[in-house]
Write a sequence for this structure.
């Protein structure tokens, strides 16, 4: 019997990862090409199509009975409704790029072609393959260089009127606070992302003049969330306080999310979540502190069940299943 | 031909208003009973049922060809899913009250019986009868003693997992700021409600020692949003600054709402909106200032089209049409 599979594509600033994903969310084969700096979208789409075709050929060698149902794509500023990438700051393609339309020329018979941003793709991945299989209302936060989010209401991803809903990383956490990547002051992303944790670490080192901290031997450009975790495990006070403060901030933000959407659970994905209780415990405690009584002790904060390395591909491929569900 | 009508019930802290509403959202007849302090829910439901029956009889005298499709109820902490009112701080009924179940005993043949909170009812009212008839994604903010909100995504009210979504009045505006009615510090409601405006007025009077302000002749318990508006019209500097500050705060909060949900429009309802440009202009300007580039100049801030006096009844009745749509 034919095995139905989906193709997932994750377009990042430097690389584009492509994978063939089975119905259980396992990557069967994967490959990647450079996301070019040349800005020529037609050339890039042509290269991408070729890479996808080659990957389909290669996986057929493993199993000749595959049906390729569609291609799901996660990309920064990817708009589900229009199939376009719009003014993505980290990509070389300018203005509004009609990605799905261009890709359709190369795959005229593919049943589903769909695009969204990476955090939305992760949320759909969690719903299709991961820990949210039985949930109709949940939220996914991706903690990386930035903070992305995907909102699911009544079993559907919330795209909003324009296709760009779920930018919770850019909600106000501390008015007049740290400058965010978007230029505004005080957004959640500036505090709760992996790079926000680094900023917190240096803020604390400065505050305490903490020359004895393990983190005081790293430059600003060297330090990352993993090093903070390693130092916390060794009992480094600065590192431990970074997690406490990050959890306090994230907990405040997640309480707002609960007050907006009353989700069953909030999933956290990304590097900082590898720290386990160091980050989950203070986040949960502080969220509870900020919740209205009607929500207290009801909302789960869970680690994503998507495998870190493949999550972007797997999430993107999940779009295909979601499309076919309609 | 039979005219199909819906009954709307608005349960407030002191009064319960009941109306028969036509398909255009006009109240044909209305009445009210006291929301009792005795805490006996069965007695209250029996009294409410009698009042509804009397109102149906009275409207039949005007038009004998009416079909009563259902009863929609707006109540504080009203839970759509369970038909219960849960721990409403301003009502005498304790714990979880099975309102719909109890009312069903009195109206076994009525097609639709549904309950939600007042802000959600207002949002559905806007969608069924008001300015959001053609919208699938919008948000309603009700500015009164508190701040309520109703979120509409893909044409449906967002109830969330528990039925209590849309508590945007209780999201964080200024960490560590003013005490909110719920006990927390810094919520949007403490700044952007009608009573928040009064607090702002007194804060400014104190700040400037503004003995010459028209508002300096009113006690804290006397002053209301209407007086602030009247003073602003006369050019009172304190009153004008109250609107500027309220708009700045509300604009910040609405930008967060846009980043969450990407709505087509945000509707404002309630006393303070009667001030027109005094409140809409600074709100719009400040929202724009906080929006990510992809959202700028796209989101409308509109006054609700529901008539102030009848809005609660009309909104509640809209629940009935929404139920029958399913």
């Amino acid at each position: 019997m034919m095995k139905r599979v989906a193709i997932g594509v994750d377009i990042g600033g430097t690389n584009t990862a492509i994978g063939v994903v089975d119905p259980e969310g396992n990557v069967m084969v994967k490959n990647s090409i450079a996301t070019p700096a040349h800005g020529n979208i037609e050339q890039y789409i042509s290269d991408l199509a070729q890479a996808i075709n080659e990957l389909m050929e290669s996986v057929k060698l493993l199993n000749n009975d595959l049906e390729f149902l569609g291609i799901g794509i996660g990309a920064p500023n990817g708009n589900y409704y229009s199939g376009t990438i719009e003014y993505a700051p980290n990509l070389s393609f300018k203005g509004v790029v009609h990605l799905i339309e261009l890709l359709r020329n190369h795959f005229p018979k593919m049943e589903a072609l769909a695009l969204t941003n990476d955090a939305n793709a992760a949320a759909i991945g969690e719903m299709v393959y991961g820990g949210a299989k039985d949930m109709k209302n949940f939220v996914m936060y991706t903690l990386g260089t930035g903070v992305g989010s995907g909102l699911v209401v009544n079993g559907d991803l919330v795209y909003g009127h324009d296709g760009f809903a779920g930018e919770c990383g850019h909600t106000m956490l501390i008015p007049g606070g740290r400058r965010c990547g978007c230029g505004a002051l005080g957004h959640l992303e500036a505090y709760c992302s992996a790079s926000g944790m680094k900023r917190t670490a240096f803020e604390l080192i400065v505050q305490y003049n903490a020359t004895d901290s393990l983190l005081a031997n790293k430059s600003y450009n060297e330090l990352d969330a993993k090093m903070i975790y390693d130092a916390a495990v060794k009992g480094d006070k600065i590192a431990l306080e970074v997690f406490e403060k990050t959890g306090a901030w994230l907990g405040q933000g997640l309480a707002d999310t609960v007050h907006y959407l009353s989700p069953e659970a909030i999933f956290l994905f990304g590097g900082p979540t590898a720290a386990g209780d160091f980050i989950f415990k203070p986040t949960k405690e502080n969220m509870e502190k900020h919740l209205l009584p009607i929500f207290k002790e009801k909302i789960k904060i869970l680690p994503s069940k998507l495998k870190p390395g493949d999550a972007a591909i797997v999430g993107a491929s999940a779009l295909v299943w979601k499309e076919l569900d309609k």
Observations:
- Chain B has a mean pLDDT of 96.
- The two ends of chain B are 24 Å apart (CA to CA).
- Residues 138-304 of chain B form a domain with the Nucleotidyltransferase; domain 5 fold (CATH 3.30.420.40).
